[in-house]
Write a structure and sequence with these properties.
The protein contains twelve helices and no strands. The chain is mainly alpha-helical and 285 residues long. Helix 4 crosses helix 12, helix 5 crosses helix 11 and helix 10 packs parallel to helix 11. The radius of gyration is 29 Å and the shape is flat.
Length: 285
Amino acid sequence: MTLAIVTAVSDAEIAEIRARHPGVFDTPGKLIRRWAPWAVAVLYVFWSLWYFDIARFFETSDRVLSLLRAFVVWEDMANWQYANIYRGIAETLAMAFLGTLLGTIGALFVGFMAARNIVTFAPLRQVVRRFLDILRGIDQLVWGLVFVRAVGLGPLAGVLAIFVSDVGTLSKLYSEAIENIDRKQVEGVKSTGAGPLQVIRYGYIPQVLPVFISQSLYFLESNTRSATILGIVGAGGIGMIIIERFRASLYDQVAFVVLNVLILIFAIDWLSKRVRGWAIGTQER
């Protein structure tokens, strides 16, 4: 038989324990600090819903349903211009591939200049990094508008927009990978009397190349989607066809184009896994 002994604790003893271990007990200040951020977040969400008049979505539900129906009910497919659609998709893929390739080549050089363990002269490194901040800080869509204005309508503007944006982002990712390499391999190459370029070739690149390939392949997939949006602002590709179909209220053709773009993204993702597995010496499924 187990005897339970209950000992009464006086208020004075509780006060003494509270004073000795204040962090164990909840106080009004702690409760406010714990729950105030949640309360502010909830209030901000409700204020945002009110400010953007979310009720209008429910008031126009009939129009939303009719628009969704227009997307899924495909009519008169015999008159669709499939050649133009697939030409636009091929142009979009070419834009993404060429822009990513040029961005990767540019980042391969600029990334080393932004790495702390390569460029030890801090002022030069900071100038390079701030330049990359400018390239990365301006959205790709804005770059598309700039180059459409500069070189005119067409895929060249999209390629340049992807190239400039990718140089800014990939260079930052590459420089971080370079800074995190194993120094022992670099020191081993240096001990053979190799020059600076040989040290980079045999000490740095073998360690970071799989990371570079993986990141560039991801950007190829991402840029394929971005190239679609760039086409909407006049940078060529399938985006121009999408905006034309939208303006003509041919929503079923828009849905068909988007479905083909999704299939293209899936194919690129599958191929990227195979190339990534080859680069790092493993076979991904």
